[in-house]
Every structure is written in C-alpha cells, then in structure tokens.
Amino acid sequence: MSSSTDELVLHPSVTKSFFKGLIAIAVFSLFLEVNPANLGNYFIFLAISIALVFCYMGAKWSARYVVGSGGVTIHVLLRAEKNIAFSEIEGVTISQGILAKRFHCGSLYFQLSARRKGSYISLIGTTAETLRDVKNPNEIYQRIASAMNPMFGT
C-alpha cells in the first residue's frame, strides 16, 4: 500500500492466494499414488502446479485500486478501467473470511446507485463493485466513508 498526498494506491494481497494454492496442491497430492517409480512425474506435477499458483498471484497483484479525493478507480487485468465517484456509492461493506483475517486483508464491496452499472448484481438487485483482498480493509473503509460523508471522518 502506497499513497501520495490525496490518493491511495492499493494492490490485492497475494499471500493468502499463495497459501490457498499450497493447501489445494497438498490436498490433491493426498489422492495421488506417489512411489519411487513415478516420483519424477510427481515433481513435474508440483512444479507445474506451483508455477500456475504464481501466475495466478501475478495476475491478481496486477490489479490496482486508487482511492482519490473524488472517488475510486479500479484497474483490473484484461478489463476496462472503472472510475466510481463517491456520489455513486450508496453503501460500503467489508468481507473477511478466516484466512483473510489471518493475513490482515479483506474485500470491500460498493453498492452503487441505480444510475451506475457495476460488475456484480447485489442481493437487493442493485449493482456493485469490489476491491478484492486489500490490506487493512477497515482503514480503507474509514477513508472511503469519510470521503463520502466528511462529517463521518471527524
């Protein structure tokens, strides 16, 4: 997480993804019949699996979220850049699972106004956008909430 004078630039945390990938490889490995005759094949499987986990981590980390004075900009690999003004955000929710809490990250979901189209449809029928796996989501939430309502942050 880095910041300039009035904007905050964030990237998703990839540490959690690395451990989730290792857990998946370990679980899958339990079902393989590894013996001295196919040990070489198992090492090839491990190398390819770990390489795929690193590729996923790189793609995930390439996302960039900028929280500025007027809104949030979302840059995600192979998707168009999205600029969301604070006036278009009706609500912000934090989501943290067990691993996310352990790695001090979480996702922020923005419920958008009816005039704004988002990437996801929320449970109440409006659209939403998300900042996935950002470090210290409570601090980011406070910053966005205070920017949306200046009286909130004081």
How is the biggest beta sheet arranged? 5 strands, antiparallel
What is the structural class? alpha+beta
Biggest β-sheet: strands ordered side by side in the sheet:
1-2-3-4-5
Kindly state the percentage of residues in helix: 25-40%
What is the β-strand count? 9
Instruction: Note poorly predicted spans.
Output: none
CATH architecture classification name of the largest domain: Roll
**Beginning-to-end CA distance, first to last residue:** 23 Å
Oligomer designation: single chain
The total domain count is: 2
Percent strand:
25-35%
Q: What top-tier CATH class of the largest domain fits best?
A: Mainly Beta
How many helices? The count is: 4
From the 3D structure, determine the CATH topology of the largest domain. Answer: PH-domain like
**Shape assignment:** elongated
Radius of gyration: 19 Å
Mean pLDDT: 89
Element string (H = helix, E = strand): EEHHEEEEHEEEH
Structural account:
- By secondary structure, this protein is α+β, with helices and mostly antiparallel strands.
- The protein folds into 2 domains: 2-12 and 65-148, PH-domain like (Roll), CATH 2.30.29; 15-60.
- Helix content is 36%, strand content 29%.
- It has helices at 15-30, 39-61, 98-102, 137-148, and strands at 2-3, 8-10, 64-67, 71-75, 82-85, 89-95, 105-112, 120-121, 127-135.
- The chain has a 5-stranded antiparallel beta sheet, with no helix packed on it.
- Strand 3 and strand 4 form a beta hairpin.
- Helix 1 packs antiparallel against helix 2 (39-61).
- The longest helix is centred in the N-terminal third of the chain and has 23 residues, at 39-61.
